[in-house]
Amino acid sequence: MLDVGKWPIFSLCSEEELQLIRQACVFGSAGNEVLYTTVNDEIFVLGTNCCGCLGLGDVQSTIEPRRLESLNGKKIACLSYGSGPHVVLATTEGEVFTWGHNAYSQLGNGTTNHGLVPCHISTNLSNKQVTEVACGSYHSLVLTSDGEVFAWGYNNSGQVGSGSTANQPIPRRVTGCLQNKVVVNIACGQMCSMAVVNTGEVYVWGYNGNGQLGLGSSGNQPTPCRIAALQGIRVQRVACGYAHTLVLTDEGQVYAWGANSYGQLGTGNKSNQSYPAPVVVEKDSSCCRQPSPCPTPDFPCAARCSRIIEIAACHSAHTSAAKTQGGHVYMWGQCRGQSVTLPHLTHFSCTDDVFACFATPAVSWRLLSVEPDDHLTVAESLKREFDNPNTADLKFLVDGKYIYAHKVLLKIRCEHFRSSLEDNEDDIVEMSEFSYPVYRAFLEYLYTDSISLSPEEAVGLLDLATFYRENRLKKLCQQTIKQGICEENAIALLSAAVKYDAQDLEEFCFRFCINHLTVVTQTSGFAEMDHDLLKNFISKASRVGAFKN
């Protein structure tokens, strides 16, 4: 399941808010803006709001999520963003809305004024249903359901495809070689545009200074031109980085071309390529996660693991990523400041994670989709079953109250229970050595690996952990006690640390008492301190110079 929390901007959201997210897009020059939808189909925005790119009607930054009221009732089908940034959004009904930076008419509303609220773009699109959107740094493309491409915005290198270099203030259909073609996929680099047609051909136009158009030259292209070097290769998808291009074929092969100063082409070097070059994913069988022998001998693991099913790039980054049919995710290019020149196998389960953790800036390369996950992990299932009378086969009677547990889990998790329950067929165990809160916390720890107690109660649990020789639990208790120490309870906690031979905790409590000596010596705990402990405390305090003027 996709974890949006991997993007730093989401650290501003609470855990409850994150659980409600169903779609999200992180954007901006530093990954400091985000738009997301919730399970209730509400749209929220958050971040620095450069040029009004949050669509709230102002340019004020917001550290807390704010509802985007102007799109109330709209469901998002796809979304893209530029460098300004500007935002282009298509709804599930095929409508287009734009807002944000507009110095180059990239909003398509006929002006160059920044758009502080979403504007419905209908010029030349009124009878069209938009199914896909793409943004370059300062230009925009949309794809309609009938396979037509419309473009607008910055056009200094011909990226709008109009045949000139004049900026395009409103949507204009891209024609020329695309006139009678059915386009199925679009993408934008910083200042170039790409389209894949239903026959598998790729058409390109715009800036070509790094060979990102794949035409074998470095000259700009003001109108769509077919990539002849891909003749006979059927392309399914295209993805553009800042100045490089990736395509995925129907046979699961990846080709790359364009800028390569960070190794973003995955060719093993840093030389630019003006023609498509194959990207080879390592067919090392050691990367295979399948059991041995191979479960599908007719389709061996090496072929399955190296067949690419998804490619990823973003116009604001020099990073590339791909996912194989075997579920492996590879990355290459600029990765956290390093230049990775060959596809590198990651531990991620989706390409989105590559951009969250390794791209600069940490933005999303597409509209993220978070599927509701009702599946419980083993750990989550165990947590739910603690103290559940409906499934338990053992009851502990402590202070007149029952705590429900499961014998098999206790025997797996605790050496004490492994021996004490071995030949015990009783379904009720009476416990008088420890209090109900302490024993319940101990049993809950066996189900959850965590504790939630006050420092005073943690002292009792520390006693239990020492008795049962549960060293990890002992450390957790000491940590809880350290976090809850204060002048009033410091002596009591010090006494407990000495009693249970928790030397690290003893030293921590002693240092706390020395640092707050004047107040600590006036507490009731100090007045009631055990004689031997008091004598040792005074002696040790003297040795560290606590009584010097």
UniProtKB/TrEMBL annotation:
List keywords of the entry alphabetically: Repeat
| Per-repeat ranges for RCC | 94-146, 147-199, 200-251, 252-325
InterPro entries reported for this sequence: BTB/POZ_dom, RCC1-like_dom, RCC1/BLIP-II, Reg_chr_condens, Signaling_Regulatory_Domain, SKP1/BTB/POZ_sf
Q: Where would I find the BTB domain in this sequence?
A: 392-455
Q: Looking at the record's lineage, which domain of life comes first?
A: Eukaryota
Q: What is this protein called?
A: BTB domain-containing protein
Organism (species): Gulo gulo (Wolverine)
- Lineage of producing organism: Eukaryota, Metazoa, Chordata, Craniata, Vertebrata
